[in-house]
Amino acid sequence: HYDAVYPSYGASDDSVGVVILLELFRNFIFKKEPPVNPIIILFNNGEEVKLLGSLAFCRSHRWYKTIQRFMNIDS
Question: Catalytic residue at 47?
Answer without folding.
Answer: yes
